[in-house]
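Recall that a protein's primary structure is simply its ordered list of amino acids. Everything else, from secondary elements to tertiary packing, is in principle encoded there. The following example makes that idea concrete.
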Amino acid sequence: MTEFEPPLGGLPVPEHDHDILLVAGSRPDVARLAPVATAFADAARIQALTVATGPDPMTVHEAFEALGVPADVTQLLREPPDPQPAAIAAMLMTRIDELLVDLDPSAIMVYGGGMTSAVAAQVAFWRQIPVVHLQSGVATDDLLCPFPQEANRRIIGQLASLFLTTGDSGLGSPVGPNAITVGDTMTVNPQPADLRFARLVRRVRANGPRLVLVGLDRPDSLGVLAGLPDLLEREPEIEIVVFGELAAHGAAYPLLQHERATVVRTLPLAELVQLVAASAVLVSDDPELVADAPGLGTPAVLVDGPHVQEPGDSIRSILSPAVMTTVRQVLATAGITPTTPADGLAAARVEQAVAWMFGLCPSPLLTSPFPSNTEV
């Protein structure tokens, strides 16, 4: 779809006394909000409407589809956005404000510190619509790291009514009185259908090997592909997954014979999101994929890209000959972060907390995966 239009399809008609808009402006937003939409549908006491918006709304729309939760509203653009952040923010502010006027939701939910989240929170605050901030709180002590997400996260924290955190953190200042630990809803998404990747993700999350995910499509990235066997030799505690057009090139043949390497031509988006989130570092010549990586908690290296690094940026634009050196530096500095086992109830905890905010249950803390009056 190439036209620039108002929202895709007719606006939904609320079916509950309370409704909440789950506003996503990027694929990382979708990865956290799609499981939440499913949890709201399962509990059947609050209507949750998924909104695909942002500077590239069709990419967000397709991400919702890929994760099995179609977007209820897709805000197509009236004209191509100017690439400057201020112009994108101005365009989003007008579009999201129009949607809030049309739907008049009981609340909105945003994730993290992306531009779309910051704009949606600001507009909702102006309209006196409560804001629920998923993965709220201060992530680092440095306002510029990551840039600009950390600053956006703190701005949203000043506007939100309900703060949903992934876990207890001693960094920075408290998020507010209505702070509830729910866990990371990313872990509730379906596991990769390919058993090789499902097992790899489980091993990584059990503090096993560190994963280096490599997506290469351009012929001038062959030097990076050729350097991967040496990286495996130098880093015995890593595993590598290679995908993209160059996966079919003869230079990938040595990796096919290596027990710690997996080579595939394509990865479905649902599996790609899980692998990026599980990776210690992403290496790719796809600028859009690299731009998504920090939102999934993964540092990224853009091969021969135009990206100009900002203070605190976790995206590095590196010429091909220096990519392997940079990857080893990232692996050396990142270390291994212990992972708390997930119980699969993070999204249900989000629904419970919002239901409590609306006065539909006496406690914000989940005692059962489903409310007592819900048929399973």
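Residues 7-184+342-357 form a domain with the Rossmann fold fold (CATH 3.40.50.2000). The chain has 13 helices and 14 strands.
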